[in-house]
Every structure is written in C-alpha cells, then in structure tokens.
Amino acid sequence: MHNKILDEFNENGYLVIEDFLTPEEVDTLYQAGRTLCLDAPQSNRKIFSTLKAEDAHSKELYFIESGDKVRYFFEQGAVGDEGELIVDPMIALNKVGHALHVEHPTFNAVTFSNRVREICWQLNYNRPAVCQSMYIYKNSGIGGEVTPHQDSWFLHTEPNSAVGFWFALEDCTLQNGCLQFIKGSHKSGVHRRYLRNPDKDASELMIYDRAAPIYPKSSFTPLQVSKGTCIVIHGNVVHKSEPNRSQKSRHAYTFHVIETENNVKYSEGNWLQAPQDKPFPLLFDRKA
C-alpha cells in the first residue's frame, strides 16, 4: 500500500490533517485549558519567554524540573516586578507543561487515542513514546512570538526521531499568530542544540551550542488552519509563530513523540530527562 501520509510528511516536513478532533473534543480540551488558568499558582510566577532570560536560575530550574509535572509559565507582559499579575488571570499564561499527557485525563485521552497511534504507525515508528506535552495560549495582544526553531534543538535523539503533534483549539490566522514553516527544511540537519550546561559552576543551567541561525522571512509558509486541525511536525523542520496581534486567542495543545527502539538514543544533554522510575509512556510496541 502506498503511504500518502509518509510521502507528504517527507516532502514538506509537516502534515496538515483537518478535522482530526471532533468539535466536542476541541471544546473539552479548550475548557480544560481555561480551567488550568484558574489552577495556576498565585505566587512564584515563572515567565516563559523564548526571547530573554532574566532571574534565570530559578526560572530555569522550574522549567527543567517540569518534565513529569504540570507547571505554569506566564507571559512576559503578565507579571509585574514583584511577581504580581498585571492582567486578567484568564489571559496571563503563555503555556502549561510538560506532563499534561500523563497527569491530566482530558489531555491523556487525546494523546493516547487510536488516531494518534495510527499516524505514528504510518510514520513507521516501532516503539513510540510521548516525552512531553504543552497547552499553549497565545492570547490576544499579550501572546508573544515563538522564534524560528527546530524541535530537535530541544528533543534530540540519535538518529533524529522527534515528531510533534499540534492541535488547533481555535482558528489560526496570520493575525493571531498561526504556525509558519520553511517547507522541506527538515532535510538540512539539526542547526543547533539546546543543552544542559556541562559547566556545573555556571549560573546558566541550559545553553545553546551556537548562535541562532538567521532564516529569511520570505521562506516561511503560514498555515492558516481551522480549529480541530492537527499539524504533524517533523523534528527538523524550521517553524515559528508571530505575536498575536488580533482580538482573538489562539489556544493549542501539543505533544512530542520519540522513537525508543534499541538503535535510537535519547540525548543526555536534552533539558527533558525522564525520571528513572517514570520512563516516557509508550503509544505502542510494534513487536509486542
């Protein structure tokens, strides 16, 4: 049988599957995301920004230790100097991560659904595991940009095997910061790495191994998609999203899958490390 899914994925570095989620599922996930806003901590608020790192150490620790927890990351414009909220709590969060797929039943159900397993099967995974998940808010006016990157910078395996599943829970437009991709850029290797700092005395826990590449703006293709769409993202495809300049939010749920079959090595330098007693949960084992 000819695998059309694999062809398109290998050609572009991403796959757009419309109506992957039912309207009911979209609504359930969206409501769960709103509820998380009310669960967010009232103190010790951490800001998640891909642009600048201040108060770095404690912020980094909160991030690095979030792999098996549900943790809350606020937008830069949401928190005052004393850690007080300066916007409505419903729009203050940048994202929640990184173990919703394990710790939260609503997100667990979608992540480990047969539809997701089927895609992973068609992408030729043998023993795929889900390593992390995030609810991303991208709220109106305050939702910051996500700078161009490859997911393999953060979730590196040898050979590369990371794939992202990204679910639009609201319509995504140019105005509210839809995802944008450089088609075919997954064929050019991994351009940099985000690594645990080997210098244990340094204040920075995480470092990039080289400067950010410059990607020409004109090379990005925006994907304006309707809610319920799933975008499957190759770990090496370059993508970004602009700030949300619209009056509408752009909520999304996303998680990442890696291959755990014998020959694939999960990099020890990655920020995200599974605890000894909690290996990344499997979607299936082809041999089993």
Secondary structure blueprint with pairings:
Elements: H1 4-12, E1 14-17, H2 23-39, E2 46-47, H3 56-64, E3 70-74, E4 93-98, H4 100-103, H5 105-111, H6 114-122, E5 128-136, E6 146-149, E7 157-158, E8 163-168, E9 179-181, E10 194-196, E11 206-208, E12 221-222, E13 230-234, E14 239-241, E15 252-259, E16 265-266
Parallel strand pairs: 2-3
Antiparallel strand pairs: 1-13, 3-4, 4-5, 5-15, 6-14, 7-16, 8-13, 8-15, 9-12, 9-14, 10-11
Could you characterize the architecture of this molecule?
By secondary structure, the chain is of the alpha+beta class. The chain has a domain at 4-21 and 97-266: Jelly Rolls, CATH 2.60.120.620. Helices cover 19% and strands 23% of the residues. It has 6 helices and 16 strands. The protein has helices spanning 4-12, 23-39, 56-64, 100-103, 105-111, 114-122; strands at 14-17, 46-47, 70-74, 93-98, 128-136, 146-149, 157-158, 163-168, 179-181, 194-196, 206-208, 221-222, 230-234, 239-241, 252-259, 265-266. The strands form 4 sheets. Strands 1-13-8-15-5-4-3-2 form an 8-stranded mixed sheet, sandwiched between helices. Strands 6-14-9-12 form a 4-stranded antiparallel sheet, with no helix packed on it. Helix 3 (56-64) links the parallel strand 2 (46-47) and strand 3 (70-74). The mean pLDDT is 93. This is Phytanoyl-CoA dioxygenase domain-containing protein 1. GO terms for molecular function: dioxygenase activity; metal ion binding.
Please provide a brief summary of the model.
This protein has 288 residues and is α+β, with helices and mostly antiparallel strands. The chain has helices at 4-12, 23-39, 56-64, 100-103, 105-111, 114-122, and strands at 14-17, 46-47, 70-74, 93-98, 128-136, 146-149, 157-158, 163-168, 179-181, 194-196, 206-208, 221-222, 230-234, 239-241, 252-259, 265-266.
